[in-house]
Amino acid sequence: MPGGGPEMDDYMETLKDEEDALWENVECNRHMLSRYINPAKLTPYLRQCKVIDEQDEDEVLNAPMLPSKINRAGRLLDILHTKGQRGYVVFLESLEFYYPELYKLVTGKEPTRRFSTIVVEEGHEGLTHFLMNEVIKLQQQMKAKDLQRCELLARLRQLEDEKKQMTLTRVELLTFQERYYKMKEERDSYNDELVKVKDDNYNLAMRYAQLSEEKNMAVMRSRDLQLEIDQLKHRLNKMEEECKLERNQSLKLKNDIENRPKKEQVLELERENEMLKTKNQELQSIIQAGKRSLPDSDKAILDILEHDRKEALEDRQELVNRIYNLQEEARQAEELRDKYLEEKEDLELKCSTLGKDCEMYKHRMNTVMLQLEEVERERDQAFHSRDEAQTQYSQCLIEKDKYRKQIRELEEKNDEMRIEMVRREACIVNLESKLRRLSKDSNNLDQSLPRNLPVTIISQDFGDASPRTNGQEADDSSTSEESPEDSKYFLPYHPPQRRMNLKGIQLQRAKSPISLKRTSDFQAKGHEEEGTDASPSSCGSLPITNSFTKMQPPRSRSSIMSITAEPPGNDSIVRRYKEDAPHRSTVEEDNDSGGFDALDLDDDSHERYSFGPSSVHSSSSSHQSEGLDAYDLEQVNLMFRKFSLERPFRPSVTSVGHVRGPGPSVQHTTLNGDSLTSQLTLLGGNARGSFVHSVKPGSLAEKAGLREGHQLLLLEGCIRGERQSVPLDTCTKEEAHWTIQRCSGPVTLHYKVNHEGYRKLVKDMEDGLITSGDSFYIRLNLNISSQLDACTMSLKCDDVVHVRDTMYQDRHEWLCARVDPFTDHDLDMGTIPSYSRAQQLLLVKLQRLMHRGSREEVDGTHHTLRALRNTLQPEEALSTSDPRVSPRLSRASFLFGQLLQFVSRSENKYKRMNSNERVRIISGSPLGSLARSSLDATKLLTEKQEELDPESELGKNLSLIPYSLVRAFYCERRRPVLFTPTVLAKTLVQRLLNSGGAMEFTICKSDIITRDEFLRRQKTETIIYSREKNPNTFECIAPANIEAVSAKNKHCLLEAGIGCTRDLIKSNIYPIVLFIRVCEKNIKRFRKLLPRPETEEEFLRVCRLKEKELEALPCLYATVEPDMWGSVEELLRVVKDKIGEEQRKTIWVDEDQL
Q1: Can you tell me the distance from the alpha carbon of 74 to that of 219, in angstroms, rounded to the nearest whole number?
Q2: Domain boundary among 753, 769, 785
Q3: How many other C-beta atoms can be found within 10 angstroms of the C-beta atom of residue 745?
Q4: I need a labelling partner for 820 at 20 to 30 A (CA). Which of 90, 269, 653, 793 fits?
């Protein structure tokens, strides 16, 4: 056998090469085989041929390291490769049986369907057994298909029943629609009558305004003349005193001249002096001659005499010197005396002048006080006459409404009976469909299942599937007449209930009592409150009511619902809305009761505090030079003044409790509201509650049981001529005093004993922890100057302050503290104007904004005020044909809409002209801009003037909101970032990510979904940003995508516009809004950041439009000024610093703007 070894090795190598060649062909097609082969199909046949064992099959099918089908198929090929040529042959036979196309791909031959391997291994019996197993599998699959068909048939029957029920629902909705149209016709008929009354009221108001203006001008002229008279009197007194002084001085000089010595006396004295000198010389000569001839003894005597004479002369000289000194002192004393006398005369002159000035000013003050008393008497008389007219007119309308409501109740009863009849018919149809299904159930089961299906399979499979596929059929065996469809689509019957009259019910407070909402918003929010707070008896009509609400056209009702005798204002709109509003619960929970925003605006908008300018409008010559009619200006000013509401500011309902109902410890008493102010004093505010601070001894309040320390909860009675219920435990200090002062007639006070809360309040006030019971935060919408606005604190627009007292020192001023933007701590404190005073300041600033535009801008645009006046001429001619519409009213309304558009267009320029005049105009609709709203109002007025009420349009477009209530939020995670202008967002995001900011910034991944999925998600959830990639797919970003980025503690950079800010805040995501200011100075620096080439004028115009959208944001934003950066790298650095700074700040959100 020595030569057999090499031959055997050659033979083995040959076999191995052949085997490798065979498997090489398989490996060439490994990708296709592993992609299309299902290992679960091939393993039974491979085990039957004993190529693989049970362990290999379990590894291929159940190994955790092989998650995908491709991995399992690859592992199966590796196992067969180890089996050699036998594995290859059996694998090809399995491919020939299960995958003939792959068999042809590998071998290049047509499949013959021969099973030589299995016949050799198992024989014909094994092949038969294998084929029987395959047949059983196919039968089971066919049974599953039959069961699925039965499920689809059951689902089809269920959808048919739902279709019938939806048809009945549609009939019911049509009934509601018919009723709606009937009420609409009735309202239109009343509207025609109301328009006539309004025209008369407007004419009277216009005449009264003209007379008031003339009287004011006469009074001002009289005051000017009186001032001139006083000045002339003052000047006359001064001249008289000067003349008197001059006269006194001239008399003194005359006396001095008269008392001087005469010329003859002077000559005589000189002559006597000469004689004495001559005599003295003679004596001297005699003495000298005698000296020469006298003897020595006589000479000694003469020497002694000479010596004595010299001593006498010396003594005499000393006396002369002494006399001279005394004369000098006398002369100085006389000079001092004269000087003091002159000063005394000057002081006497000044004293007399001041005395006369004092008398003059006293007289002037008395005159002014008399004029003020006269003005107050006239004002009180006008208020009294107006209130009487309003009361009389309201009584007439109440009587008319009484009969109208009786007719409405009968119609409602008829409609409810018809609706109940439709529901009964629906129940009958539902029962008939259930009976039909029960009768056909067994037949459907017998016909749908195959005849050769074993009984055990039927009992197991179909018995389990029935409750899941058709839940209604599973309940058919019940004897009850109710079903899931009954409870879902056919609501239980309740006896008809009369709608509550909301005229005497005080609902929960709104977040912003100043903003004037549209009536369509009232209706929508009213239905939302019905869904949350309605009783079980009223829940039945909830789905239908909500569906019907969506069908209502958004037409304003504010212009036709006023009942006051004056041009319709906020109070008249609210009063009619209270009478006709849908049903609401008396006591509501702390939910979003947005429908109450305007129900509290029932105060008189003309009774104002006695501070500030007496007239906030002006009729100067500059207005007339602009081409404005003085009458039109007066109409616009009247419209502005009607939105300066005087009712005190009310904090948000989220910061205080709800209205408490009568509890076991709550007591009540009835008092006379006319004298309630003089009987008791209050202490507290919205944060601590309102307490009785003192009660007048012997008053009715003391006899009724009110004592110091009692907490007032609710006041029910007539306030400003209307029956109201005011929750005093949540009122501010200013509002509580306002309510008590304006009560009339019998009122009911609900109170409870709370001495502990009162003592804690007094102790905290004595310790200086608080100044009152008020506490809330506001955001300023205008600049306030301590020098110009009669306050002690200067603030800027968008500053946040903490209000601590709404009646500081019993004046109409608010004590507040500036809030630290990072720690929320109170900083420096001071006073700011109250809400009504701030409204007047805002009104003045708006008028200055309109009237101070440059003449170049006004002349250079097509919408100049002079052009407006010209365009109004044909409108006036056309409108005179309709007796219901006043032509002057149409002109003023149209002019007002154009003025709003003018303010919106020129706003940014005026902010640059004078930073002290910056204001933030909050639109009545949060989603609309002022310019768009005013433009729509103007277009509507041009098309149909008789349907436009200028004040209702003003309520939609503009609200005088000087202070916005804000709430603090805190975010530990990094917040997403929005850039504006939006055209720079994409470039800035890319630059930030490329500049090494990947650790702090990132972009969120968007979801790619189909059009149907996008429409479904748009209805069910919030979508922050969406973009259509192609006609069938959308790219969208949801709040979950942004939260996933925040969970990684990174800033999510968004390329969406700032319009998604509200949706983000509603989803509890608080973005950082970064505004990059663009102006003519720095526009050239943005050339590298623009994604596509644009002209500088076009880019600047787009940026201006985006800048106006910032005012409507419910949160604060950061600004990158032009002087902060000079290059793109510096801009990126400033942007990063701003983002870090905003991340550390507290988030303040105006929830009323959401």
Answers
A1: 105
A2: 769
A3: 12
A4: 653
